[in-house]
């Protein structure tokens, strides 16, 4: 796989393709980040972007993980002291998940977001951005139903982080795209207080997983079922066993099932195949024996044709997910001991 393929595999969107191709021509030492509101426990949504960071690390990028403590505070996720404590827990889980400790820089937002130049730059963006624009950027990020003033400052600061961390590429789930678009439009128009380059950076967005039980809407940790590093092997098996996984999809039918995604296949595609060379589905001899897949497409085709039964696919998915999650679970156990 060449650098461009590795950088962009499983990305839903890159902005712009031309800029990302230029990075792929010489990725060594380029800087990329994902920012996370510290929430204590990594869930499968965080893991998707972390998997992309692992790809980028392999391609030669320097990875920055922003533990966005100030942003979590602005999004009403707790007191500042509580947020700082959960950030520390999250850092260890990212390393356990497979990020290379020597090539990953962890930065707290509060390390630079309270500096005078940064604060003045935020104010400059407050002057140049309409209320409507900031609110739209936050639509998929804002916690709670009521927009607060803090929710309007939040996306402006996120747009500025990309400048202050001297990044060459910003990565996030597709829910971050409007903030990234705000970055691309507003930053080049700034006067700016600092020596950083006020230039728009390319962005890469990872997919949003569908709800595990229904395949409709977004998998969410506050409602519905999600997989996290707190889950035991038995929890994972139970959750995956209950997941929506229709055996076949008939494109001609207007049955409701066709509007749903298949979360089991999504997790195979975005979380499992990028981390394992091959996937083995164990089956008793009487049902045809083990199946081995080198790529996602052949597994999906077998599920579609009926060669692979959903129950067998789910069993394998639970095993592979457990393997990915086990080291982080161990870290949590040690922290709580
Ligand atoms: N369904 C999903 N699929 C992929 N990534 C997701 C998903 N949900 C959240 N993320 C990612 O996980 C990170 C945390 O997002 P967020 O706090 O919104 O998730 P959450 O804990 O599920 O929140 P909520 O309970 O409000 O839905 C973000 O980086 C986001 O892009
Ligand atoms: N907006 C991100 C968190 C974040 C904060 C600041 C950033 O610079 C980047 C990302 C989220 O929804 O989780």
TrEMBL record:
Gene3D superfamilies: HUPs, Tyrosyl-Transfer RNA Synthetase. A motif ('HIGH' region) lies at residues 38-46. Its main location: cytoplasm. It catalyses: tRNA(Tyr) + L-tyrosine + ATP = L-tyrosyl-tRNA(Tyr) + AMP + diphosphate + H(+). It is found in: Cytoplasm. SUPFAM superfamilies: Nucleotidylyl transferase. A motif ('KMSKS' region) lies at residues 218-222. One of its GO terms (cellular component) is cytoplasm. Keywords: Aminoacyl-tRNA synthetase, ATP-binding, Cytoplasm, Ligase, Nucleotide-binding, Protein biosynthesis. Its EC number is 6.1.1.1. ATP binds at residue 221. GO terms for molecular function: ATP binding; tyrosine-tRNA ligase activity. L-tyrosine binds at residues 33, 154, 158, 161, 176. GO terms for biological process: tyrosyl-tRNA aminoacylation. It comes from the Archaea. Belongs to the class-I aminoacyl-tRNA synthetase family. TyrS type 3 subfamily. Homodimer. Catalyzes the attachment of tyrosine to tRNA(Tyr) in a two-step reaction: tyrosine is first activated by ATP to form Tyr-AMP and then transferred to the acceptor end of tRNA(Tyr). HAMAP family: Tyr_tRNA_synth_type3. This is Tyrosine--tRNA ligase. The lineage of its organism: Archaea, Methanobacteriati, Methanobacteriota, Stenosarchaea group, Halobacteria. The gene is tyrS.
């Amino acid at each position: 796989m060449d650098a461009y393929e590795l950088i962009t595999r499983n990305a839903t969107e890159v902005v712009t393709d031309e800029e990302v191709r230029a990075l792929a021509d010489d990725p060594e030492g380029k800087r990329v980040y994902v920012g996370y509101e510290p929430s204590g426990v990594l869930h499968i949504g965080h893991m998707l972007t972390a998997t992309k960071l692992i790809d980028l690390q392999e391609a030669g990028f320097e990875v920055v993980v922003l533990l966005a403590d100030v942003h979590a505070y602005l999004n009403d996720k707790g007191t500042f002291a509580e947020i700082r404590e959960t950030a520390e827990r999250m850092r260890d889980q990212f390393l356990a998940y497979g990020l290379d400790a020597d090539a990953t820089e962890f930065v707290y937002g509060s390390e630079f977001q309270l500096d005078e130049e940064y604060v003045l730059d935020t104010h400059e963006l407050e002057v140049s951005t309409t209320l409507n624009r900031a609110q739209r950027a936050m639509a998929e990020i804002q916690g709670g139903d009521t927009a607060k003033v803090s929710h309007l400052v939040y996306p402006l600061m996120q747009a500025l982080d990309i400048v202050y961390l001297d990044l060459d590429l910003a990565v996030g789930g597709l829910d971050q795209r409007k903030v990234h678009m705000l970055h691309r439009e507003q930053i080049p128009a700034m006067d700016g207080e600092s020596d950083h380059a006020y230039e728009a950076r390319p962005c890469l967005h990872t997919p949003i997983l569908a709800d595990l039980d229904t395949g409709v809407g977004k998998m969410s940790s506050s409602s519905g079922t999600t997989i996290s590093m707190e889950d035991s092997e038995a929890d994972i098996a139970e959750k995956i066993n209950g997941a929506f996984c229709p055996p076949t999809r008939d494109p001609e039918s207007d049955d409701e099932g066709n509007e749903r995604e298949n979360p089991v296949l999504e997790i195979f595609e975005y979380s499992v195949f990028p981390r394992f060379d091959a996937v083995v589905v164990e089956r008793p001899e009487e049902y045809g024996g083990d199946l081995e897949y080198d790529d996602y497409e052949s597994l999906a085709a077998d599920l579609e044709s009926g060669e692979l039964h959903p129950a067998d696919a789910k069993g394998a998915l639970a095993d592979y997910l457990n393997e990915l999650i086990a080291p982080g679970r161990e870290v949590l156990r040690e922290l709580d001991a």
